[in-house]
Structure formats: structure tokens, C-alpha cells
Amino acid sequence: MHLNMSRQSILIVLALFCTYFIWGSTYLAIRFGIESFPPFLMGGVRFTVAGIILFVVMRYLGSAMPSAREWLGASVVGLLLPALGNGTVCYVQQTVSSSVAALSIATAPIWMAIFSSIWGHKITPKEWLGIAIGLVGIVLLNLGGSFDGDFMSAFLLIFAAASWSFGSVWGKHLAMPKGLMGAACQMLTGGLALMMVSAYAGETWPAEISSKSWGAMLFLIVLGSLVAYSAYQYLLKTVRPLVASSNTFVNPIVAFAVGVWFASEHVTMVEMVALGVILVGVFLVLSVTNNKDI
């Protein structure tokens, strides 16, 4: 029993590492990707290819073919997470920096708490305090001039966070294929939905694709989707909803770091202070986790 708990704890730490640092880097990868690819097409290709690869691998390893009910559950989550959640972020990143996109998604734990409460999850006072402190950090980041009056972009990013959070919580109560087959079906259905949106929007395959955009697409498919998305689905089944979504607090820090390093994005002193405040919020959210939670 103790060995199983230790193994699970290691897997949780590894999964959190993936969602913190890989997903924190995907915002810059999205920025590089949409330099060549239209946003919905890029998201569609990313998730469809990743979904097909993981589906084939899981079938080869012996996973059962999902039932119609399981396909339906996976499709609901695929629509809310990869399609509405990530697809909206790709669209908005045409006009905002990767750092700003990541920091705005940090509103997700608020939505996660609200939606979890619908299904009877009780949020502890310490978690609420962590959420409140994290929100103070987001307010500080906005006061630093991140959106510069672009309220539509801010609204769309909050909508993306709400869609992602609602799908994350609802998915725990839906029939879902077992193990990583669930992640495969979600990515596949979400990717196909984005491909349909891309076609409806009149997007076309780019005439020229830079090596930077191809590299970004490869990063998004392999690390952002196959590795990190699967890790996130594992966390949703294993830990408290707020712990699973705590990556949304850390992703802005990672996005700022890689944005400054690789894309010369500018960070103000107010934004640096805000990032420190967000880290305090993360600590409080994670510190309530115990064996009962995992």
C-alpha cells in the first residue's frame, strides 16, 4: 500500500511538472506557430494528429474500443477543452503576447472552484485564500498595462478559461474511455471540431511555413498534447480539481520567462511583482493537498 502511494505521489509530481513547465511553454509555441498557420487550423492539426497517434498506440497496447457512450463523453470534453478552450487562446494570440495569454488563463481555478461546487465539492478556506491571492496577482498584471484596453481579448481569454474548467470538472462525471484512451478520444474529437471551425472561417493551408512554425507544431503535438494533455487528464482523475488546475498559476511565470528569453517580450516591474504574488497563491492551493486528496 505504501509503495503504491509513493509511486502515485511520484506520478503526480511528474504530471504537475509537465502541466507547469511544458504547458507554460506552449503559449510561445502557439505564437511561433501562428506566424505561418491560421489559428484554428493550427489547433485542429495539433490535436487531431496527437489524438490519432495516441488512439493507435492505445489500441495496439490492448485498450478496448470506446463505446458510443464513452465517445459522447469524450466529445463533450474535447469540445470544451481543446476546441473552445485552446482554440480560443490560439485565436486571441494573434493580437496579444504569449505572456498575457497565459496570465489570463490563470482565472481557471476560480471557475474550477465554482463548477466543482455544483457537484458538491467543498472548497477549503485556505484554497479560497490562495485563489484570492492569485487573482490579486492577475489584477496587478492587468494594471501593468497588459491589455491596454483590449477588453474583447480579455473576455475571450476568460471564456477560454471557463470552458476549460467546466469541461475538466464535468468530465469527471461523464462516461469516458479508460486511461489514456480518454485523452486520445478527447484530442481527436476536439481537433476535428477545430478543423470544422477552420473550414467555416475560410482558413487555408499556408503557402509557406517557416522552420520555426514547423518546430512549434511538432512541440505542440508531442510535448504539449501527447505528454502534457495526457498528464493533465491523469491529474483530473487523481487529485483535487484545484490542484489539477494549479498549472494556470505557474504557466504565466514560465510563459514570461520563455517569452523574454526566446522572443524578447518585455516584462515590467509591476508584472514581476504580480508573478511573485501568484506564486504565493499557488503555494496555498497546493499546501492543502494530503493523502485523502490523492
Verbal overview:
With 294 residues, the protein is an all-alpha fold. The chain has one domain. 77% of the residues lie in helices and 0% in strands. It is globular. The two termini are 13 Å apart.
Write the layout of secondary structure elements.
Elements: H1 2-33, H2 39-60, H3 68-92, H4 98-104, H5 108-118, H6 125-143, H7 151-171, H8 180-200, H9 211-238, H10 241-244, H11 247-263, H12 269-287
Helix pairs in contact: 1-4, 1-9, 1-11, 2-3, 2-8, 2-9, 3-7, 3-8, 4-11, 5-7, 6-12, 8-9, 11-12
Q: Helices and strands, in N-to-C order?
A: HHHHHHHHHHHH
Alpha carbon gyration radius: 18 Å
The count of DSSP E runs of length 2 or more, i.e. the number of strands, is 0
Tell me the count of domains: 1
Residue share in β-strands: under 5%
Q: State the low-pLDDT regions, or none.
A: 289-294
Q: Per the principal axes of the C-alpha atoms, what is the gross shape? A: globular
What number is the mean pLDDT?
Answer: 87
The assigned structural class equals: mainly alpha
Discrete helix count = 12
Helicity, as a percent range: over 70%
| First and last CA, distance | 13 Å
Main β-sheet description: none
